[in-house]
Amino acid sequence: MTLRNILIHPDPRLKKVATPIAEVSDDVRRLADDMLETMYDAPGIGLAAPQVAVSQRLLVMDCIKDEDATPRPMVLINPEITWMSEAANVYEEGCLSIPEQYAEVERPAEVEVSWLGLDGKTHSERFDGLWATCVQHEIDHLDGRLFIDHLRPLRRQMITRKMQKLKRERARA
Ligand code: K1U
Ligand code: ZN
């Protein structure tokens, strides 16, 4: 397993709509393994392939935050939201591609998602709580959307400027 580099906003590769995956190949299994390792190392609760510069529809997540609890690493290929609740939930979101910036985002409180698993089978599950927030945040990445795209333009601009400054500083270091 290899740690992959996480792209930082602004980057045109984070704005592209990712391509569906045709089959669960060895490359796809390797990508999923690398992404889980990269997510746990960050640390984060989710990661989408475009964040590691792969424009394919694959995401990983594990929203078990308690270190004493059993982890639940999930790999979702070509995920689709098939149902969303009318009730909404507000969560203060972060993003590994927008380090140290957090903002409240409102999303459906519950979603049903279907996806292709690494076992080649179709899966479907209803998510709520942090899992629902996280899976929607990650599917947004597959569609070239970031959590700051849900904010008012001025707030989004402020965060983007901070990220431009961070990238300049990192390039100089
Ligand atoms: O997609 C990403 O950039 C990962 C992101 C996922 C996410 C966080 C919060 C709400 C929705 C989606 C992160 O994992 S940011 C880091 C984070 O939330 C975290 C890090 C360590 C422990 C617990 C949470
Ligand atoms: Zn993110």
Describe this structure in words.
- The protein has about 170 residues and is an alpha+beta fold.
- It has 3 helices and 7 strands, in the order αβββββββαα.
- The protein has helices spanning about 25-40, 130-140, 155-170; strands at about 45-50, 60, 75-85, 90-95, 105-110, 110-115, 120-125.
- The strands form 2 sheets. Strands 1-2-3-6-7 form a 5-stranded antiparallel beta sheet. Strands 4-5 form a two-stranded antiparallel sheet.
- The longest helix has 20 residues, at about 155-170.
- The two termini are about 25 Å apart.
- The mean pLDDT is about 100.
- The site of zinc ion (ZN) has 5 residues, from helix 2.
Q: What's the β-strand tally?
A: 7
Gyration radius, in Å: 16 Å
Hetero compounds? ligand K1U, zinc ion
Overall spatial form: globular
What gap, in angstroms, lies between the N and C termini? 27 Å
Largest sheet: 5 strands, antiparallel
Concise structural overview:
With 173 residues, the chain is an alpha+beta fold. The chain has helices at residues 26-41, 129-142, 153-172, and strands spanning 46-48, 58-61, 74-84, 88-93, 103-108, 111-116, 122-127. Ligand K1U binds at residues 43-48, 65, 91, 93-97, 133-134, 137-138, 141.
Explain the layout of strands and helices.
Elements: H1 26-41, E1 46-48, E2 58-61, E3 74-84, E4 88-93, E5 103-108, E6 111-116, E7 122-127, H2 129-142, H3 153-172
Antiparallel strand pairs: 1-2, 2-3, 3-6, 4-5, 6-7
Bound molecules: ligand K1U and zinc ion.
Zinc ion is lined by residues 95-97, 137, 141.
Give the tags.
173 residues, single chain, binds zinc ion, five-stranded antiparallel beta sheet, two-stranded antiparallel sheet, binds ligand K1U, alpha+beta, globular, 3 helices
